[in-house]
Design brief:
Helix content: 40-55%
CATH superfamily of the largest domain: 2-enoyl-CoA Hydratase, Chain A, domain 1
Structural class: alpha/beta
CATH topology of the largest domain: 2-enoyl-CoA Hydratase, Chain A, domain 1
Number of helices: 12
Shape: globular
Strand order of the largest sheet: 1-2-3-5-7-10
Oligomer: single chain
Largest sheet: 6 strands, mixed
Number of strands: 10
Amino acid sequence: MKAYQTLTFEKKGKIGIVKVNRPEALNALNEAVLTELAEIFAEIEADDSVGVTILTGEGRSFVAGADIAAMKQLNTLEGRDFMIKGQAVMNQIEATQKPVIAAVNGFALGGGCELAMACDFRFASEKAKFGQPEVGLGIIPGFGGTQRLPRLVGKGMAKLLIYSAELIGAEEALRIGLVEKVFPAEELLAETEKFAEIILSKAPLAVRAAKTAINNGLNTDLLTGVSFEGEATTAPLASEDRAEGMGAFLEKRPAAFEGK
């Protein structure tokens, strides 16, 4: 793994831990961070030694949003290009075959909330804060927030949060379905790693196929989605992991999956 300027990477077994590392700017997203996020997730996708990725932030923030000081200097076309780049990075993370868990340790505002929403799961510290405050700055969520937020919490709640620019805490985020789990701050990373290990104990080809089927199906009607599911079953059915998993079940022993 190459050295990064705005990110850190640590590996624990088959868990890769990516930290956005600009604590002096509350980990705000600028051009450099977006570029490096795209690069590191491409590396992770190609690295067979990483099975699950945890994405978090250094210090007291997950990602406090886009870097407003940098954005203010952009003209209209430059601003649009920045938004398009952010969208591409979020799309890339969402499309990554391996599961990605956002461990939201603090502020997840604007682009930070959008980054968390691009992950498969959002586990939050009880101290975390979420919001899409863009309309208070004269813009709208531009890294996918107007699309992913209503898919997670429903159209009305998404409009409420976006139109009001209201910030919400972790428990409210859990109640509305924006996050899946909330933990005490000091337990967040350890609990997220425990869940990552649960995923790693399952058949990796099956997990990846399930992710593909879910993501593709959500963007279409039910019958087309079921058809996607049918296509996604082929690789797991043809895998050695299927024989191992079913054999282990019948023999009442833990399965030893190899991703083949």
